[in-house]
Amino acid sequence: MKNIFLHTKHTLNITPFYNRNVEFAKFDEFSKKWNVKVRNGNSDEMEEYFCKFLVVATGEASYPFIPDVPGLASFTGDAFHSTQYINGEKFKGKNVLVVGCGNSGMEIALDLLIMVANTSIIVRSSVIN
């Protein structure tokens, strides 16, 4: 994943800002821009951004949920929610099943492949109509 991040940052000129909480977002009809105010979690200072487009990408994983799967309690391998995933180093050469093909699932599956894990992914329904 490091190579992908570096590619995004340097080639596409995207610089992520971490540890920010959106406090306010409003579209201004006159300027045709979004006014977004965020609180910096490191300094507690307010930051203000003006942008032509606003993409809300909080995802469903904001509230981690692991369904009650029969047999999961007696499973001897690692089973955890994507919010607990750090990287695929410890899975090198191991069989890993990723459940779900949302952004997190796909990124984790890619990272596991890069780390040379034997990766499979299962999906609830077709992604092609």
Please provide a written account of the structure.
With 129 residues, this protein is α+β, with helices and mostly antiparallel strands. The chain contains 2 helices and 5 strands, in the order H-E-E-E-E-H-E. It has helices spanning 2-11, 103-114, and strands at residues 20-28, 33-40, 46-51, 95-99, 118-122. A hairpin with a 4-residue loop joins strand 1 and strand 2. Pathway: Plant hormone metabolism; auxin biosynthesis. Its EC number is 1.-.-.-. Its cofactor is FAD. One of its GO terms (molecular function) is indole-3-pyruvate monooxygenase activity.
How would the blueprint of this fold be written?
Elements: H1 2-11, E1 20-28, E2 33-40, E3 46-51, E4 95-99, H2 103-114, E5 118-122
Parallel strand pairs: 4-5
Antiparallel strand pairs: 1-2, 2-3
GO biological process, one term: auxin biosynthetic process
EC number: 1.-.-.-
InterPro entries: Auxin_biosynth/cation_transpt, FAD/NAD-bd_sf, Flavin_mOase-like
